[in-house]
Amino acid sequence: MIEGHGDDLYRYSDIKMNFSSNIYNGTDLSALNDYLCTRMDAVRSYPEPSAASLERMIADECAIRPDEVMVTSGAVDAIYLIAQAYRHEGSCRIIQPTFREYEDACRVFGYQEREDGALCWLCNPNNPTGSVMPVEDVLSLARRHQLLIVDQSYEDYTMAPLLRPADVESRDNIILLHSMTKRYAVPGLRLGYITASSQVISRLREQYRPWAINALSLEAGKWLVARGITAIPDLPSYLAETERLRQALNKIEGIEALGTQTNFFLCTIRQTTASKLKEYLAHEHGILIRDASNFTGLSPHHFRVATQSPAENDALVTAIMSYALHQLN
């Protein structure tokens, strides 16, 4: 199900630069680490059955009610929960190319994919393209489906306007997914949350298991929300560096780097496959990229990169240029 996911660092022995994960990797987590060391006794007791204390904090931050928030064990957990809770609707539409887990979750629970499906899944900002659908277009999409699920996991990685939790609290057919993993750069904690009307949240809670959020993740989540500091300290500069990297890659013969509104973007390579380029970069330069060929609708020539430091970005451009020149000769 998750096979072929990005950030497969475990497959390689000597990766020095990781462009395959979209999560910002320059965050200093030392203060969080120090705090969790003081909370290790929490593992001696059961955590809250439904992470209610963290949900109240998120509700205050979003200016909505606690019964309009539901914390989950990462956004992927929320995806499978929604697919389970609405499985009797029977049909779905997935705006492709996009994150594979919507498709996998719908298959697990027996949905038929149709253009007029009852459930519609939208990733916004979209992974892997980095594009953002305007708010009015999202609302128009909601009017054409019984339920629209908008995965906003990368909402802190763009400056484009997006739906806010307060925008959907009175709408019974829109669910927003949010990722604390992305916001705070803590993928190992597996924390995410859903915002929706209280009626939708109530339906989802009926299907959810107790104690889904472990005690240390809960402690970390509350500490992070209380401080309100996101992973990326200077988003405008980071996105400007993304554009610089994209333009540099576009100057390499045989490479096309597509436009984006986030910190990551799709590329194509003409002379060979993304898989071969990935293996070359990993073994010859210690650089890891994302082979994007397993996204529905993409080809063996697609790969994705996420912006790193300027020096690392320059190293990627040099390495791909050397590979492209080798392919031409």
Q: What is the level-2 CATH architecture name of the largest domain?
A: 3-Layer(aba) Sandwich
State the helix count.
Answer: 12
Name the average pLDDT.
95
How many strands, what sense, and barrel or not for the largest sheet?
A: 7 strands, mixed
Instruction: Report the CATH superfamily of the largest domain.
Output: Type I PLP-dependent aspartate aminotransferase-like (Major domain)
Number of strands: 13
Give the % helix. Answer: 25-40%
Task: Report on the architecture of this protein.
With 329 residues, this protein is an alpha/beta fold. The protein has two domains: 9-27 and 233-328, Aspartate Aminotransferase, domain 1, CATH 3.90.1150; 41-227, 3-Layer(aba) Sandwich (Aspartate Aminotransferase, domain 2), CATH 3.40.640. It has twelve helices and 13 strands. The chain has a seven-stranded mixed sheet, with helices on both faces. Strands 9-10-13-12 form a four-stranded antiparallel sheet. A hairpin with a 6-residue loop joins strand 9 and strand 10 (264-269). It starts with 16 loop residues before the first strand and ends with a helix.
